[in-house]
Amino acid sequence: MSPGKMPLVLILGALISSITCESQSIKWDEPHHPWRRTPRSQDVKVDHEVFAQKLVKTLIVENPNENVIFSPMSISTSLAMMSEGTSSWTLVNLLQVLGFHLSEHEARDVHHSFMVFIQRLHQLEREAILRHKDFLFINHHRRIHQKFLEEIWKIYKVEVQMINFRDKETAKKEIDHTVAQKAQDRHCELITMLDPETFLLLVNYISMKGIWQVAFDSRLTHQETFFVNEHQKVQVDMMRKTEQMLYSRWDDLHATVVELTYTEDLAVVLVLPDDGHFHSVLRKMDLRTDRTRYAKDMRMVELILPKFNIFSKIDLKKVLPKLGIRDMVTTEANFSGITEEVFPAIIEAMHQARMEVNEKGMRMATDCAMDMAEDRLLHQSAEPLRLKFNKPFLMFVVDNKTQTELVVARVVNPRAE
Ligand SMILES: *[C@@H]1O[C@H](CO)[C@@H](O)[C@H](O)[C@H]1NC(C)=O
Ligand SMILES: *[C@@H]1O[C@H](CO)[C@@H](O)[C@H](O)[C@H]1NC(C)=O
Question: Which of 82, 238, 332, 415 is the most exposed place for a label (fewest CB within 10 A)?
């Protein structure tokens, strides 16, 4: 069955007039594709990990008492797209933080090194594993370069929509409408307040649902107590299943970790901090090193996990400076890749992510009753180890192909909106 693939969307946009590039979609491997022309790309050294890790470290500790969900892979790709529109210091600063060390004139084919992410996101979307979309809304009073529109369509499949931000009501309506429609997510109201002089609004949307290879048996799902903190408890639907999974005990960090394979290249990592250690785990853990630092082994585990559906709207304009991207979010930013006009550039950038976790999986739970019976025979002595996620925990969907976190979630209260 379909794992309930879900849309992930990010959009916004009011369109007074919509500029649609006429260029046909170009196959990634077409030899004359513009970002393939420059042989220099082979020499471009980039360390994608540095940015993704900084992002995870920053967002995971902010507002630790709330749920959060975000996609480092999607945010990186969205920022790479912005490099097409920026010049001078704005560009150099952006690329530095993304892991490149280039001068402005060397920067023309950085897209090439993001191809691996772009293609991966497109592939996962085709496989209906997630929904991913970038939206760019630009002030319709600006005269923008046709070349910019063409390039971001060709490389990122993103269409720019021109918006009259001065007409606040209409702009808001149009943006929300576009996003909801293209993201197929009716519950993501995007815009609260926008400056009428906004030059550009970037919305990066991703959603994912159904992350289990083997479904949970919904007959085993029951209401149970989830301990949000010392003072707050909520009743949640707790799912349960017993199967072989990678188990690891992170003693110094005070956490227990299991890893389940979702598809061949995607792993779901669940981190359950011990009582009283949630905040210290947030501060100290580093998924990549900790995953290799601690021994793990295959064990029969009884996994007890709440159902949840969480959504986050992250204001990247506030987050980017903390990561070192300062220039792009100031009014002095140089957007000469988009327009020749000179004006104080007000931009907004948002990341939206949703994840729905329920019983659904690619295979029905009953299909594995046999496997389980066999497993039991093989591991007769081993009682399944019970692991109950009835207090705040972390969930990572890690892509083995790109070695990047596709989704990071901090679940503090599975009932919270
Ligand atoms: C923006 O950068 C371009 C390219 O380096 C430069 O020609 C232009 O003068 C810059 N614009 C501003 C306003 O600094
Ligand atoms: C991840 O990829 C490496 C190399 O491509 C492979 O050897 C390894 O088995 C993969 N691991 C998982 C969990 O898929």
Answer: 332
287 and 162 co-located in one domain = no
Closest ligand, as measured to the CA of 345: 1
Per-residue pLDDT of 121-177, as tens digits, reads 999 999 889 999 999 999 999 999 999 999 999 999 999 999 999 998 899 899 989
Q: Strand, coil or helix: what is 121? A: helix
For residue 252, give the CATH number of its domain.
2.30.39.10
Q: Would you say the CB of residue 334 lies under 6 angstroms from ligand 1?
A: yes
CA distances from 114 to 37, 73, 120, 267, 292 (A): 15, 10, 10, 22, 25
- For residue 336, the ligand 1 atom closest to its alpha carbon is 1
Does residue 389 share a domain with residue 322? no
User: CB of 336 closer than 6 A to ligand 1?
Assistant: yes
- Residue 291 falls inside a structural domain: yes
Atom 10, ligand 1: residue with shortest CA distance: 334
Does residue 266's CB lie within 6 angstroms of at least one atom of ligand 2? no
CA distance 233 to 386: 21
